[in-house]
Amino acid sequence: MSEIELSEAQSRAIAQTVREALARRRISRQTLAEEARISISTLEKALAGRRPFTLATTIRLEEALGQSLRQEPGRPAPETARHAPDELGSYSRESVAWIEGRYLTLRPSFGTAGSIFAYRTEIAWDAESARLVFREAERLDAPFAQSGSVAVPSQSGMIYLVTNWHGQHRLAVLCRPNIQGEMYGVLTTLHAGRGTQLTPAAAPLALLPEQAGAFGYGRIGPEEPGFAPYRAYLARVHEDGYATFFTGVA
């Protein structure tokens, strides 16, 4: 059976949306093709209009980008919605553009004591849902990579990365970027213990503009070159007052 091909009009609209997503997220076409598990030739030809998008290719691109590329019949064009919903802070796209980007993300390793877990977090505007969204990549435990919405309420001055998966929540609370574009805060999540046991866990969290990730991603141990600078970034969460950890009752 041949693959379902989308119409010329649909293909043009998808190509435009993909090009905008590539520009916002500052990723190459090669990277997107690899993450979507399609050939770079297929992507290039579809973006250039030399062949229509197929339904299968479009679905893979949607999964890789974390956003819908197909407009539902009768729904207004996504770009008409310029403000996030009230529960995320009612921010406009223009007011949060400075948060968009790719960040080296650091936290203590939950599985190996004394090590640091490093991965990538991408934050970008999703036109269809009219909000900032985030997605994680370059994680050693890829099946546990998170994605979700970004809340930026004016009252607290904080930034919240919120995952809500069928009622199960995971939350990162971050201070707004400093002059270097770095964000520091706390991650609250569930830690997988023995068997199927899950335990609430909290840890310091640092998001740094990706160019700071000179030592790469993965589980960084004390013997590796990147450990000392990565540990210094994480130490700032407490030392510079970006978060307070209460460990007992006086």
UniProtKB/TrEMBL annotation:
Source species: Methylobacterium phyllosphaerae
Domain HTH cro/C1-type: 17-72
Domain of life: Bacteria
InterPro entries: Cro/C1-type_HTH, Lambda_DNA-bd_dom_sf
Name listed for the protein in its UniProt record: HTH cro/C1-type domain-containing protein
GO molecular function, one term: DNA binding
Span list, region Disordered: 66-86
Gene3D superfamilies: lambda repressor-like DNA-binding domains
